[in-house]
Amino acid sequence: MKALLLRDLRLAIRAGGGLGLGLAFFLIVIVLVPFGVGPERELLSAIAPGVLWVAALLASLLSLDRIFALDFEDGALALLATSPLPLEGAALIKAAAHWITTGLPLTIVAPLLGFLLNLETTAYSFLWISLLIGTPALSVIGTFGAALTVGLKRGGLLLSLLVLPLYVPTLIFGAEVVRRGADGLNATTPMLLLAGITAVAFALLPFASAAVLRVNLR
Amino acid sequence: MSVWEYANPRRFMGWTAPVLLWVFGLAGVALVTGLIWGYFFTPDAARFGSTVKIIYIHVPAAFIAINAWIMMLIASLIWLVRRHHVSALAAKAAAPIGLVMTVIGLATGAIWGQPMWGTYWAWDPRLTSFLILFLFYIGYISLWAAIEDGDTAADLTSWLCLVGSVFALLSRYAVLFWNQGLHQGASLSLDAEENVADVFWFPLVLCIVGFVLLFIALVLLRTRTEIRLRRAQALERRMARN
């Protein structure tokens, strides 16, 4: 499992752009928002929690189709399926590798981008924690979507169509945590619900991903 | 003889042919009486005026929209567990009907919302949940359309339906948490103290029965079409081989 994780991480870092691309996309979306809605500081700080979360979500969507596609094409996925490591474990590791190369960097730079959008000072820690708790769920859900569409020729657009509705609960609770943080309210409830979604997604979705991968490898 | 015998495609074609006529007929009778009763023989509601009459389309359509998904979930489970092809095809057949019902529910709701709430659309929990349901239907249908091999498509869409159901339910409660809304509570429930008044209740129930029968009839019809399509494809493949 460790070997697979390290291999995936190395591939993501070395094989050109996968790591930086999501971050650059996140930055560009955040830069575009003020052009769209205008530079008023009050307006920006009011929409900042939601915009940051939506942008992070889209950025993590961007690299989903890379999770399985390359391994599927060169046959590595079929080897993984026949290896002693259960396919469920492999799906989990793939999701973890995706999170480390997209979710984690997004979480780290998010406060900087919050600065651009004039996010309330009280909200920074909430933004950071909510992304730290919530983005793993995005990766696990996305891995399921990637497993569904891996056999398709042009699955990219379909992948977003399938995965985005599944992101709704995570987004609602994640953005709610930051909004409550910005308003100085108690954010424990949405935080716990967000953590609950992540925990359930981690516990159950690798089984669905593995089942779907087996169908696609048939 | 077990009940699963009826799921054999040939038997299914056999017993559905006469049943289909009856279900269509009963659906027609229920809908015609329900709608005429509702539209011409009920008084205007005190608070809503005559706009209340859209309820005879709005509520049944919304009811079917949700239950069609539940039916797809059950059919998907049967396919995953027992590998009955008719079951997978029935789930495929039900999806576009559910999608249309969702659109009808949203559209009639918007038309009703304009005079009542002063807006066509509000980010109310029920409305939002329905919009999310609409997205789930679109995703499900496009996944069916994207995969060529029948069995693979049936497997993948069944899994999507399972996972999607969990997340649709989650979204429902997440949306409730996110925004409290304008929409009134359930129009019909067995345990509520206060339901819709009796004058509206009977035609409404008749309309719902009509919609349910119509849904069953359409699913049977579309499943029969899917089975014939499969047979035609199999024949074509055989011809191509010779």
UniProtKB/TrEMBL annotation, chain A:
Principal place where this protein is found? membrane
Tell whether Membrane is among the UniProt keywords: yes
TM region positions? 12-37, 43-64, 99-119, 126-150, 156-178, 190-213
Q: What keywords sit in the KW lines?
A: Cell inner membrane, Cell membrane, Cytochrome c-type biogenesis, Membrane, Transmembrane, Transmembrane helix, Transport
Q: How does it sit in the membrane?
A: Multi-pass membrane protein
Q: Which Pfam families match?
A: CcmB (PF03379)
InterPro entries the UniProt entry points to: Cyt_c_biogenesis_CcmB, Cyt_c_CcmB_bac
Q: What does this protein do?
A: Required for the export of heme to the periplasm for the biogenesis of c-type cytochromes.
Family in the record: Belongs to the CcmB/CycW/HelB family.
This protein is called Heme exporter protein B
User: What is the originating organism of this protein?
Assistant: Cognatiyoonia sediminum
UniProtKB/TrEMBL annotation, chain B:
Keywords attached to this entry? Cell inner membrane, Cell membrane, Cytochrome c-type biogenesis, Membrane, Transmembrane, Transmembrane helix, Transport
Q: Which residues cross the membrane?
A: 20-42, 54-81, 93-115, 127-147, 159-179, 199-221
User: A Gene Ontology molecular-function term?
Assistant: heme binding
Q: Which Pfam families match?
A: Cytochrom_C_asm
What's a single GO CC term here? plasma membrane
Q: Which GO terms describe its biological process?
A: cytochrome complex assembly
How does the protein associate with the membrane? Multi-pass membrane protein
Q: What is its main location?
A: membrane
Q: Where in the cell is it found?
A: Cell inner membrane; Membrane
Keyword field contains Cell inner membrane: yes
**Signal peptide interval:** none
Q: What top-level branch of life does the organism fall under? A: Bacteria
**Cytochrome c assembly protein domain sequence ranges:** 4-183
Q: Does the keyword Cell membrane apply?
A: yes
Task: Give the family from UniProt.
Answer: Belongs to the CcmC/CycZ/HelC family.
Which function does this protein serve?
A: Required for the export of heme to the periplasm for the biogenesis of c-type cytochromes.
What name does the UniProt record give this protein? Heme exporter protein C
